[in-house]
Amino acid sequence: MRRRALDIRHRDRKALRDGYSPAVRRFEIASIALYCCVMAWFLWGLIPLVGTYPWLMASAFMSGFVLADFVSGLVHWLADTWGSPDLPIIGQALIRPFREHHVDQKEITRHGFIETNGNNCFISIAPAAGGALLPLIDALNVFAATTIFSVTLWVLFTNQFHKWSHLDDPPHWVLLLQRMNLVLPRDHHAVHHSAPYAKYYCITVGWLNEPLHRLRFFQALERIVTLTTGLVPREDDIGAGAARAIFEDAPRPLPAEHGSPEPEV
User: Fold this and answer.
1) In this structure, is the dihedral angle defined by the CA atoms of residues 186, 214, 10 and 8, taken in order, positive or negative?
2) Which residues contact 142 (CB under 8 A, 6 or more apart)?
């Protein structure tokens, strides 16, 4: 289906950059410090079990890596699609960086460690604390706890991998990891940065982008949210007219007996 020409207007770049206030930076520093404390406590409880459950914990750690890719896509989709950078705390610390990234893709390459990773530490604190509180009394709980630890660890690195995918001249070892598809490849992530920025949200490694795109997973979620709330996806990011046009043009998922349509890339 041929899409109509869209008038996509993002928020002002300077206003988005100015949203990174000293208060937001203090919030990020506190998030990183608390995250490190919680993860150290979590790891302290897991280490004695490695000798007892080596293969179980190894498989859980790998499962967490894949799940982190999904979590990165879900959070990215939420921040790109709903809400406003003007919201207190969440809007300024989490939504604003994603919206700024659409205006200036290279801005992330100028971020230091704190600005790159602070918001991911914040969203990981509660799950990490919950995982650390699991009673490690059987194999199932050990598997669950190790998976949660892995997810919260890789979510920390997600924005770092994302940042590398926008570097003009990444280090050779980063290029090697990208070519091996062990971190987010540059060409793969470039698919997301075609207007209206409505696909390929997973930014840890990107393995789940194509399956989720073929399933129209995020489009289905958008329709559920719109049907239940009346909100239009991306309206605050690209303007009401463009957002409404994209929503109306988006293909509906077909019933299973009709098969799945080929995605537009």
Assistant:
1) positive
2) 46, 49, 53, 56, 57, 60, 136
For the beta carbon of residue 141, count every other beta carbon within 10 angstroms.
Answer: 13
Could you give the angle at the alpha carbon of 216 between the alpha carbons of 215 and 219, nearest 5°?
A: 155
Six token digits for residue 90: 């969440």
Handedness of CA 7, 211, 233, 167 (dihedral sign): negative
Please tell me the distance from the alpha carbon of residue 243 to that of residue 234, in angstroms, as a whole number. 6
pLDDT tens for each residue of 19-70:
567 888 898 999 999 999 999 999 999 999 999 999 999 999 999 999 999 9
Tell me which residue has tokens 């302290």.
44
Specify the 3-state DSSP secondary structure of 155: helix
Query: 66-76 pLDDT, tens per residue?
Result: 999 999 999 99
The percentage of residues in the chain with a pLDDT greater than 70, rounded to a whole number, is: 81
Alpha helices in the chain (DSSP H): 13-18, 22-46, 54-81, 90, 96-103, 113-132, 139-164, 172-179, 186-190, 209-215, 217-229, 235-238, 240-249
CA 77 to chain centre: 7
End-to-end CA gap in the chain:
12
